[in-house]
Design brief:
By secondary structure, the protein is α/β, with parallel strands linked by helices. The protein has 22 helices and 13 strands.
Length: 554
């Protein structure tokens, strides 16, 4: 940038005008007035010296600002040519963005910041808005420990959880002290298990059942994935979710509800022999199937003459069958969002997810795109669910909705359109992950990674290898939730749950909440697209698409 000589001349002329009168004739040498020939007093010397120093100061500031140099030392931000140098420079020259650098900075210190500068400088130490791209922030280096601590403190939907809608429901409910509920037959992967647990908690609050047993779900083997066989017993809630978080949150939001770790902890109970099958409360499907009908059905069933084991004067343990998306929660968005937050993934699994994303950030040059304080990472990685596992093949999903080739072709095309170079893939089929990685690199120069590529330390890898099949799903669920864009198949409740979680909890300029299902009119094979997530491979209107939009908790 040219040096502003006009500004220097102006300063010089101003000084001369002060210490001598202007010449009556342009260009002539003026005669010295009498006051300049007299002996200068100490005060006059001080003023004269201050003017000289001030002029020099202005000249130095002008040089440093317009030539972007540091005259008497300090940092310089020019000529960042080596890879990674730009990021290092931005992290080590932060003061130059908010005050003077070089010589003046060492003397004067930082000048007062404008409001915009205060916002910019504070963003490196506080959580950025989810509407602000992390790439717009200063790329900051994080140790693994620092990254994990901040990442774990950041949850989709923000902290703390707003539970006012839960408190309102509990305060408006008439509670009965003669019932302790226990859910049975909760089965499936993480999305289905979450759905049954949240339905159960909703049922307990609606019916005013003062006591419940902490929800558990059926164990399934990693080899057959058979979720109907209950001979292996049940996993506790804490196997997938944060039990302490649930207890603490509900104790504050709904103190009327007492939660016990097991049925054995509930004092003085008698067991009702039969199991209550909870009816649907999907008023969006049938007007008479509503919350009031469900509450009345339970009361009438429990108090019916001859109900074996029921004692109106005792505390009755009642088994209730697990339901999935049995309530029309569309009209209750606040309650829907609040209840969805109760099934927070357990800390050990979330910690592994943080480790994986930290590795992804450093290994694939994504420092400017992934900030642990953000809830979503624009411009970082494409998240996808590849549904080619054995159970999908057994029920014919691969044929009806598209197998390996069809799914991977669509994902690669979508990823390329978005200008992303890294795909994080979630799949239980390790062989297909490897095939996809080769295909993506050969055909599109796109890198494909999974959790096993990112969790490499011996201790963390040992923890990863110890996870059950469904815990692996929970780990993927966490990593996919913060992806730049997510896409999965329509036949997967897992994919729907990731997409709806992002839809309800994230704030992003790309997010369109008006009608994410309208995409079907233009692209029939896509069931859902809100700008952040896409549910694809829609072949026909199936049960998930019928029930999830208004019944699935995010």
């Amino acid at each position: 940038m040219p040096f502003p000589l006009g500004g220097v001349r102006a300063c010089h002329t101003m000084l001369l005008d002060i210490i001598r009168p202007s010449s009556p004739e342009f260009g002539s040498t003026p005669s010295r007035p009498a006051w300049t020939r007299a002996r200068l007093t100490p005060f006059t010397k001080t003023v004269y010296f201050a003017l000289l120093v001030g002029t020099a100061w202005i000249l130095i500031a002008t040089l440093e600002r317009h030539l972007e140099i540091s005259i008497f030392g300090g940092s310089s931000t020019n000529h960042i040519d080596t890879p990674g140098a730009e990021e290092a420079a931005t992290s080590t020259t932060t003061p130059s963005t908010s005050g003077h650098s070089g010589f003046l900075g060492s003397i004067w210190g930082s000048r007062p910041q404008s409001d915009d500068e205060k916002t910019s400088s504070s963003s490196s130490s506080s959580k950025p808005s989810t509407t602000t791209s992390p790439s717009a922030l200063l790329a900051q280096e994080w140790t693994l420990a620092e990254f994990k601590k901040v990442w774990l403190a950041t949850e989709l939907g923000g902290e703390p959880v707003n539970t006012s809608s839960i408190a309102e429901l509990c305060d408006s409910t008439t509670w009965r002290s003669d019932v302790a509920l226990q859910m049975v037959h909760s089965r499936g992967g993480i999305a289905n298990v979450r759905g049954t647990i949240l339905d159960f908690l909703h049922f307990a609050m609606r019916t005013g059942s003062s006591h419940i047993v902490m929800p558990a779900y059926v164990k399934r083997t990693d080899t057959t994935l058979d979720w109907m066989d209950e001979s292996h017993g049940y996993w506790p809630f804490s196997n997938l979710f944060d039990a302490d978080f649930l207890l603490e949150t509900m104790h504050t939001a709904c103190p009327q509800l007492n939660i016990y770790q097991s049925a054995d902890e509930i004092p003085n109970t008698v067991a009702v022999e039969e199991t209550f099958n909870v009816p649907n409360a999907r008023s969006d499907k049938a007007p008479d199937q509503n919350n009031e009908h469900t509450v009345e059905s339970f009361r009438a069933w429990l108090e019916a003459d001859g109900r074996s084991g029921y004692d109106a004067l005792a505390l009755n343990l009642v088994n209730v069958t697990a339901t999935l998306w049995a309530y029309n929660v569309g009209p209750y968005p606040r309650l829907r969002r609040a209840l969805g937050r109760l099934c927070k993934i357990n800390p050990q699994i979330r910690e592994l997810a943080a480790t994986a994303i930290h590795t992804l950030r450093s290994a694939h040059n994504l420092s400017a795109s992934i900030d642990p304080r953000a809830e979503i990472y624009p411009g970082a990685y494409y998240g996808m669910h590849l549904r080619t596992e054995a159970d999908a093949t057994q029920v014919g999903w691969a044929e009806a909705f598209g197998g390996f080739e069809a799914q991977t072709d669509i994902h690669l095309e979508q990823c390329a359109k978005m200008g992303l170079n890294v795909i994080y893939v979630a799949s239980g089929n390790e062989e297909d992950i490897s095939r996809f990685a080769d295909k993506a690199m050969e055909t599109a120069n796109i890198t494909v990674v999974s959790k096993k590529d990112l969790i490499l330390g011996s201790k963390d890898r040992a923890k990863l290898d110890e996870l059950t099949w469904d815990q692996h799903g929970a780990l993927d669920w966490e990593i996919l939730a913060r992806s730049s864009f997510f896409s999965g198949p329509a036949m997967s409740s897992f994919s729907w749950n990731v997409a709806l979680r992002r839809h309800f909890y994230l704030e992003d300029p790309r997010l369109d909440k008006s009608n994410p299902y309208g995409i079907q009119e233009v692209v029939p094979h896509v069931a859902f697209d809100d700008g952040l997530s896409r549910i694809m491979l829609r072949d026909h209107l199936d049960a998930i698409e019928i029930m999830a939009p208004n019944g699935m908790f995010p």
